[in-house]
Design a protein that fits this description.
This protein is an alpha+beta fold and 177 residues long. It has a domain of 115 residues: Chitinase A, domain 3 (Roll), CATH 3.10.50.40. Helix content is 31%, strand content 23%. Strands 1, 2, 3, 4, 5, 6 and 7 form a seven-stranded antiparallel beta sheet that branches. 19% of the residues are buried.
């Protein structure tokens, strides 16, 4: 009997010496937030594209649809053999920014002439791709849905969140590097 108690005591001591095992965090990923966000973005895109389509149909211009998700038309087109800007080329351009209702947000004077190295400086994605379609001396009007303009956050100044934009851009100078 004494031995049985001794073995029980030793068994108890060894079994109680194990450190407690860490518990992993309990998290439940239902995906509800992501599902709601996807649904909201689809509705927003549908609404924006409907407004843009109405502008395109109403304008009477020969509006082109780019593979990058925006629309554009030439106010002044160069038929020369001049090249389009490529990675690393330096360009000089000016532009203005308007809402889809044609309300001026930023004028050319406010934004002044911009110097830009293609794909080497920060610029919203729609304009970055649009500038690559232009040649020196051209004037192009771009219609950007919000997701390729300033998106959810806007520019923290005059451009609001989820705001589609119309930008009239003049490519002043193109220097090949």
């Amino acid at each position: 009997m004494k031995q049985a108690k001794f073995y029980l005591l030793i068994l108890f001591v060894f079994s109680s010496c194990n450190p407690p095992l860490p518990r992993g965090p309990v998290s439940y990923n239902s995906g509800k937030f992501i599902d709601a966000s996807v649904k909201r973005n689809k509705q927003l895109n549908k609404f924006e594209y409907k407004k843009i389509k109405a502008i395109v149909e109403k304008s009477g211009e020969a509006i082109l649809n780019s593979s990058f998700g925006f629309w554009y038309y030439y106010n002044k087109k160069q038929e020369s053999n001049k090249n389009h800007p490529k990675f690393g080329d330096q360009i000089q351009y000016k532009y203005n920014v308007r809402t889809l209702e044609n309300k001026l947000i930023y004028s050319e004077e406010e934004l002044s002439i911009q110097n830009y190295f293609i794909d080497q400086q920060e610029l919203f994605s729609g304009l970055r791709q649009g500038l690559k379609l232009m040649k020196q001396g051209e004037v192009v009007t771009f219609i950007f849905p919000s997701q390729i303009a300033y998106g959810y956050y806007g520019d923290n100044n005059k451009i609001g969140r989820n705001q589609p934009l119309i930008c009239k851009v003049t490519l002043i100078k193109h220097q090949i590097n």
